[in-house]
Amino acid sequence: MKIALFSAKGYDKDYFDRINKNYHLSITYFETGLNKDTSNLTLGFDGVCVFVNDNLDKETIEKIAANGIKVIALRCAGFNNVDIAAAQANNIKVVRVPAYSPEAVAEHAVALILTLNRKTHKAYNRVRESNFSLEKLTGFNLHNKTVGVIGTGIIGKAFCNIMLGFGCHVVAYDVYASDELKHKGVQYVSLDELLKQSDIISLHCPLTPETKHIINESAFTKMKNGVMLINTGRGALVNTQDAIKALKDQKLGYLGIDVYEQETNIFFRDLSEEIMQDEIFARLMTFPNVLVTAHQAFFTGEALEQIATITLQNLSDFENGETLVNEVKG
Ligand code: NAD
């Protein structure tokens, strides 16, 4: 089976080539993302392998279907960038990697919290310049603080476990409560109650029409003054303009994001010699209490290994007519 792998980076090639020795698929790597303008590259392939910022809207799907694509393999968990109904209508199967290393993402959320709180990024630079002053580096104890977790699926669960270990009081909001977490002391509350009680809020729900801008102006008004917001979910969970207003009003005391609503044109590339065209992102970068990482929460060796293995297994199952255990259905 011939696979076109889009948005390919060196690390994708390293892991896929090594693990593909067990699967023997024919993989062609394209640095470009897949969208309606690049869909002609899929001609002659049986399947595509895509990542978080490839845009498989209805138009792209119709074009790749016409080129003979029969399977879309997402090498990620979220599938908000694929029009699932359009894929089904065009007889294209969609598979994903539902769980590769939930700890990787959960631990990165904790890294954002600790960095913003204890300002180790600033301390690192100061000490390198022989500035050993502690002025403005004051943090706060995590112990006894209330952490609100929105979405307690596999990543949210791993995150709750870590925060319980810090001695935090963990409150959660999810459409389904986890008995396992309840037994460990996590308290499920309404969204409003979570926003009201939390010192730190971390987002771990998928991006859906219901969760788009779940954190907006109205949500910020319900939060404590000086609250910390962490988003390792998807950018559009947060209305960035409203977050900027909350930062200016000092309602939002800290913002740590690994994802950004308009990240497609920014993340996963070196723009160090270019002019930043995104005014909202440029404004975000001016705040001393904002920390941005470029969608790297998943990025551990363990996760890359799992992503390549599960994706190749998904494609191999498709080729062999096996049950698709990781199929995404509408
Ligand atoms: P999951 O499906 O295991 O868990 C999602 C949880 O969100 C579920 O418990 C679900 O019930 C809950 N949920 C759904 N709709 C909700 C709503 N309206 N309100 C509250 N809760 C709701 O998914 P997961 O593997 O834990 O991943 C969560 C998200 O993290 C993914 O959808 C993806 O967008 C994001 N993610 C980011 C990275 C990264 O590198 N930054 C990596 C992997 C996943």
Automatic annotation (TrEMBL):
GO molecular function per UniProt: (S)-2-hydroxyglutarate dehydrogenase activity; NAD binding; phosphoglycerate dehydrogenase activity
Start and end residues of each S-adenosyl-L-homocysteine hydrolase NAD binding domain: 125-292
SMART domains: AdoHcyase_NAD (SM00997)
UniProt keywords, alphabetically: NAD, Oxidoreductase
PROSITE patterns the record matches: D_2_HYDROXYACID_DH_2, D_2_HYDROXYACID_DH_3
Residue ranges the record marks as coiled coil: none
UniProt record, GO biological process: L-serine biosynthetic process
Record-linked Pfam families: 2-Hacid_dh, 2-Hacid_dh_C
Family indicated by similarity: Belongs to the D-isomer specific 2-hydroxyacid dehydrogenase family.
Name of this chain's protein: D-lactate dehydrogenase
Organism: Parafilimonas terrae
